[in-house]
């Protein structure tokens, strides 16, 4: 896995266990509806261990997380809450512990695979590379 493995633009392709997961993390019902089958485009800019991770939502809303592997950074959750986290790299995966779930991202067969785990519920989102 090269240094620039994550850089690119990815479009939502499919997910598993969305409803169970968002219930576990307590997302409000309007946010739950907004996020269901949402064609999120994830844009990753990578410079060594420095990342800018942007999620573009339909309708123009974006969430941007800027972090460096191994250093604490301010991050934003799916629900829009800000928190401090130290993002790690484990076996080629980016790992971050959010307040009520653990999130990993990896590139698998040219796709961005994100897995979030909360109280035993595993939510998997797959996005295909578009740029």
TrEMBL record:
| Compartments reported by the entry | Cytoplasm
| Name this polypeptide is given | Gastrotropin
Keyword annotations of the record:
Cytoplasm, Lipid-binding, Transport
Q: Locate the Cytosolic fatty-acid binding proteins domain: which residues?
A: 8-25
> Which species?
Opisthocomus hoazin
Instruction: Tell me which positions the record assigns to the signal sequence.
Output: none
Recorded hits in InterPro entries, A to Z, give: Calycin, Fatty_acid-bd, ILBP
Q: Spell out the family assignment given in the record's similarity comment.
A: Belongs to the calycin superfamily. Fatty-acid binding protein (FABP) family.
- Give an example GO molecular function: lipid binding
A GO CC term attached to the entry: cytoplasm
Q: Does the keyword Metal-binding apply?
A: no
């Amino acid at each position: 896995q090269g240094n620039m493995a994550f850089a690119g633009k990815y479009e939502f392709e499919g997910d598993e266990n969305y409803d169970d997961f968002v219930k576990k993390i307590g997302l409000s019902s309007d946010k739950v509806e907004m996020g269901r089958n949402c064609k999120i485009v994830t844009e990753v800019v990578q410079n060594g261990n420095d990342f800018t991770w942007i999620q573009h939502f339909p309708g123009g809303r974006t969430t941007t997380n800027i972090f460096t592997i191994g250093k604490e950074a301010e991050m934003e959750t799916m629900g829009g809450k800000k928190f401090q986290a130290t993002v790690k790299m484990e076996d080629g995966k980016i790992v971050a512990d959010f307040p009520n779930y653990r999130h990993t991202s990896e590139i698998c067969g040219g796709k961005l695979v994100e897995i979030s785990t909360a109280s035993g519920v595993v939510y998997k989102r797959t996005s295909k590379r578009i740029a």
